[in-house]
Amino acid sequence: MENLIHIVFDAPGAENLRQSFALDDIIQGKVLLLEDDLAFGPLETGPAAAGALSRQQWWDILVKEESYTGIASDAEKLTELCGQMREDENNEIWIWAAQNARDVSGYYALLERLGDFIGRVHLIYLNNLPFINEKGSLFYPSYLGEILPKEFLKARKLAREITPAEAEVDGEEWQRLKTENACVRILEGGKKLRGEETEYFDSELINRCRLEYVKGWRLINQVRQKVKAHIPEEFLYRRLDQLIESGVLETKEPYKNSRDAEVKVAGTSAAPQAEPLNDQNDVIEKS
Question: Considering the entire predicted model, what is its pTM?
Answer without folding.
Answer: 0.88
